[in-house]
Amino acid sequence: FFFQAEDGIRDIGVTGVQTCALPISIFGVKIPRTAKAQYLALKKRVGEPQLGDLVFFRSGTSPSGWHVGLWLINGLFLHAANRAKGVTISALSEGTYSKRLLGWRTL
Question: Considering only CA atoms, which of 29, 27, 16 is closest in space to residue 68?
């Protein structure tokens, strides 16, 4: 996944998905498999989220009650929205994301 940053093009190499059975590796950092475990294990980001931070939400549709995405820029994040939409980019201001926001964590 690539995007245009102020200082040039950045490559966000994301391997693994939330539903896999193995630990996930993002930017070469291994993190727990579930969103709740990720939220509890990673360092809290003070201030605004930065590129590559994980952003966490309460979920009304997930059996676990958790949802996680990868923060991009300008209020956008990459996430597996649902089976119909698949992996997509959404705005924090879209739908109920801002109301369900739990916070972000840094890798």
Answer: 16
